[in-house]
Design a protein that fits this description.
The protein has two domains: 179 residues, Murine Class I Major Histocompatibility Complex, H2-DB, Chain A, domain 1, CATH 3.30.500; 95 residues, Immunoglobulin-like (Sandwich), CATH 2.60.40. It is built from six helices and 20 strands. A hairpin with a 6-residue loop joins strand 9 and strand 10. Bound molecules: 2-acetamido-2-deoxy-beta-D-glucopyranose (NAG) (4 copies). One 2-acetamido-2-deoxy-beta-D-glucopyranose (NAG) binds next to loops.
Length: 346
């Protein structure tokens, strides 16, 4: 159930215009040559800010982000303090405690946090979220209604009780998630509107590894991330024999996604009854691609794209069961990068 919650929280796809501000904090222990802690800020899934404990410098990743920080120096100060000592201290203490609870003496351990808020520009409704993962498993989630932490693993109970008792921090978390975060999000949208509210249509292609593998409908280069893609048969949306991928970021600030169709039980003469539909929020025209052998590109010699950790934090969380095409994450053996096998971007 928790896994489901996680997925619906971060892979929401709907026609309502929801905006989000999210912070991803990743701390590692036992990883040589890698910053102890990395923080990424995203608005609408676009990376807008970055910092790590090695440099302790908060970098804006978009022109409008730089302008935003220039105009709001007190926020830059806040981010710098968070990145330089507040978060590192908290994470260090928490990893120390978790290692003890999990009976771990050494090795590589990763503690991650996602917090932030979503805001619906029509209803003006917002939700805040704050949760932690340890070594790829969800361990703690804040319940904003009861203002208590929920331990998702027995080993996290000690931390939960400690954090529940810290009233000042709890009050701050609530204020941050329900008031400060939505306020900063709205301000960001204002500064970044020419870029965040633009639309870019993707190129869509059909890919297949071998003649018997599923056919992957792959869209890349779209913006914003509010998009849906599905397979149809005779114009009816299919729920069976499809495998829905997640929306993933490209290096150029656009997004990609894919949805696979298992063709093993489809007769060749029925292929023409199938098509793949891509819909982008704010754009009327759908992109429809017919299932046709002639247009399928085989995926032999696919390129391996290495996503640097800071742009892919959220994929460290254990979701291997629903991502057959993003091959299993390899533990960072050089400490700095995670490799993922993705379809080529173009
Ligand atoms: C903790 O680890 C030690 C050493 O490996 C082992 O002897 C002990 O049984 C473990 N305790 C628990 C509670 O797992
Ligand atoms: C909400 O966002 C959409 C898309 O950017 C825009 O068309 C609409 O006018 C906005 N609504 C309000 C109330 O600002
Ligand atoms: C991911 O979750 C599965 C099932 O819950 C588990 O068997 C597997 O060991 C986990 N992998 C990691 C890297 O934690
Ligand atoms: C496709 O469907 C067939 C039969 O329904 C099944 O045996 C096979 O495992 C499926 N393949 C994938 C990749 O899901």
């Amino acid at each position: 159930m928790r896994k489901l919650l996680w997925l619906t929280l971060f892979c929401h796809v709907s026609s309502a215009v929801k905006h989000s501000l999210k912070y991803f904090v990743t701390a590692s222990s036992g990883v040589p040559n890698f910053p102890e802690l990395v923080v990424i800020a995203q608005v609408d899934d676009v990376v807008v800010g970055y910092c790590n404990t090695d440099s302790k410098i908060v970098e804006a990743k978009q022109d409008w982000g730089k302008e935003y920080l220039d105009d709001n120096p007190q926020q830059l100060e806040w981010y710098t303090a968070e990145c330089s000592y507040n978060q590192p201290d908290l994470f260090k203490a928490t990893i120390f405690r978790l290692k003890k609870e999990f009976n771990q003496s050494g090795g590589v351990h990763i503690l991650q946090k996602i917090n932030g808020c979503e805001w619906d520009n029509e209803t003006e409704e917002g939700i805040g979220f704050h949760q932690y993962g340890y070594d790829g498993e969800d361990i703690l989630i804040l319940d904003l209604k009861t203002l208590t932490w929920i331990a998702l693993k027995p080993q996290a109970v000690v931390t939960k009780l400690r954090w529940d008792a810290d009233m000042a921090r709890m009050k701050y978390n609530k204020d941050f998630l329900t008031r400060i975060c939505p306020d900063w999000l709205k301000k960001s949208l204002d500064y970044g509107k020419s870029s965040l509210l633009r639309t870019e249509r993707p190129s869509v292609s059909l890919l297949q590894k071998t003649p018997s593998s599923p056919v992957s409908c792959h869209a890349t280069g779209f913006f914003p991330h509010r998009a849906v893609m599905f397979w149809r048969k005779d114009g009816e949306k299919l729920h069976e024999d499809v495998d829905q991928g997640e929306i993933l970021p490209n290096h150029d600030g656009t997004f990609q996604m894919r949805v696979d169709l298992n063709i093993s039980s489809i007769n060749p003469e029925d292929w023409r009854r199938y098509d793949c539909v891509f819909q982008l929020s704010g754009v009327e025209d759908d992109i429809v691609t017919k299932l046709d052998k002639a247009v399928i590109r085989t995926n032999e010699g696919k390129s391996e794209i290495t996503l640097v950790l800071q742009f892919s934090c959220k994929f460290i969380f254990n979701k291997t069961h629903n991502k057959p095409h993003v091959s299993d994450l390899t533990a960072p053996d050089n400490g700095a990068e995670l490799s993922m096998r993705l379809y080529p971007e173009t």
